[in-house]
Amino acid sequence: MKNCIKELRKEKRISQEELASAVAVTRQTIISLENGKYNASLLLAHEIAKYFGKTIEEVFLFDEEETN
Amino acid sequence: MKNCIKELRKEKRISQEELASAVAVTRQTIISLENGKYNASLLLAHEIAKYFGKTIEEVFLFDEEETN
DNA sequence: ATTTTATGTCAAGTATATTTTACATTTTTG
DNA sequence: CAAAAATGTAAAATATACTTGACATAAAAT
Questions:
Q1: Which terminus has fewer CB within 10 Å in chain B: N or C?
Q2: Nearest chain B Cα to A66, which residue?
Q3: Pair A27, A17: CB distance under 8 Å
Q4: Which residue has its C-alpha nearest to nucleotide C5's C1'?
């Protein structure tokens, strides 16, 4: 699964640290999500989408082929 | 977070087992989600929503107050 | 009434998400 | 250029999602 967190964050011109505290997680978590190291939980995905005023499916892109 | 998996499933008149295999998880997982024992992962949420032809936010209801 | 099918519970195990801490590198700013 | 701010890496610890298997009860079917 891909996401456009980094792009949305840069549009808003905020740092990883600001986003992290806005959605109540660690900066490490934001880094890992942006760099595709793992997937957000449903709650975190919701918080992030809400923060950017988007829907979950707008922020997280589910390319088919990943029913891993 | 709440969800209307059980309701959607009953509308479609399918068993937990059918849903489970359709989205490639265990029946246990479906039971636990329906009974609110834990939250789905983002990927599973997507699979389930897709299966029912809905968006994630239509199936999973994020009552605010749960930034636990 | 009894067999089958569907739903539920419990507990232990594995996998993955998130935290914490500490440090290295890159980018921005004065 | 030097200092500060932002981004990145790595590893160990904790939390939560998901699996497996075994068994109990409820609902539906014959």
A1: C
A2: B43
A3: yes
A4: B15
